[in-house]
Amino acid sequence: MYPFIQALHVGNFKLVLGSFIVLIGSLLLLRRKPEFMQSKGQRYFTLAYMILVDVQLILGIALYFTSPTVGSALSDFGAAMEASRLRFFALEHPLTGLLTVSFAHLIYRTAKRNPENHKRILTYTVLSSIMLVLTARSLLTE
Fold first, then answer.
1. DSSP for 4-19, written as a single string
2. Domain that holds residue 96
């Protein structure tokens, strides 16, 4: 069961990373200032992205409780904090994943509700950049 969930987690991550186009598009929109997040297509794309991030979280939670690496780290947590690989999978990776999911929801909410178009695009871009840095951080094991 663990290898299947892990394969789904990796595959879904590729879809989430493929949605990097959202950030690039928002950066390009800063120059033209069109109506951002006003069309149904833009809102549905962002909502689909948020759903992919939520699925990634659910798969990550399932992996956390079925992983032999995390299981050994949780059996002796003090010793796991000294080993970088165990610390990464038991603490750092899940924490940055939770922060990334929080930022994804914050991005959608603030971009959707901010009345001024330029501020909406700027907020979306800044929060997306922070989220991408967190995502990149969650991939580094050492």
1. HHHHHHHHHHHHHHHT
2. 2-139
Write out the two tokens for 76.
Answer: 């002796």
- How many domains, in total, are found in the chain? 1
Q: At residue 37, what is the residue type?
A: M
Torsion of CA 103, 107, 113, 118, to 10 degrees: 140
List per-block mean pLDDT (blocks of 10 residues) for the chain, which spans 142 residues.
83 74 62 61 75 88 89 85 85 86 81 69 77 75 53
Cα dihedral angle (50, 52, 57, 63), rounded to 10 degrees?
180
Q: What is the pLDDT of residue 58?
A: 92
Angle between helices 93-113 and 117-139 in degrees, nearest 10: 170
Residue 44 in tokens: 């549905």
Pairwise CA distance, residues 24 & 26, whole Å:
5
The token duo for 126 is 């800044």
End-to-end CA distance of the chain: 27
